[in-house]
C-alpha cells in the first residue's frame, strides 16, 4: 500500500497525540492544560490526618509569595490548619495582583 504525504502527516499527528495522551500528568506540576495548578489535598496532608499544617505546607514549593502568607490566605477560618474544603474553595489571586471576586 502506497502512502501519500498527507496520509503520512495525518498518521504522524495521530501517533503524536496518542503518545501525549498516554503520558501521566501530575497535579500541581501540569494539570494537562499546560499550566500549573494547586497540588491535591492528599499531596499536602503528609500524615493523612485530614488537616494540613504550616509545616506540611512548607514541604511544597510555592510559585509566588511566601508559605506563611499563602497558608494564612487559604486557612479561611484562621484555625492554623487547612482543611480539604478550604483548599478546594480557595481562589488564588490572578496574575497582576488582582484577586478574583
From TrEMBL:
Q: Which residues form the EF-hand domain?
A: 40-89
Q: Entry's PROSITE patterns?
A: EF_HAND_1 (PS00018), PROKAR_LIPOPROTEIN (PS51257)
Q: Does the keyword Heme apply?
A: no
Q: Which Gene3D superfamilies match?
A: EF-hand (1.10.238.10)
- Bias (Basic and acidic residues): 24-33
Q: Give the record's keywords alphabetically.
A: Signal
Region annotation Disordered: where it falls in the sequence: 24-43
Q: Which residues form the signal peptide?
A: 1-22
What Pfam families does UniProt report for this protein, alphabetically? Answer: EF-hand_7
Name the record gives this protein: EF-hand domain-containing protein
Q: Which organism is it from?
A: Zhongshania borealis
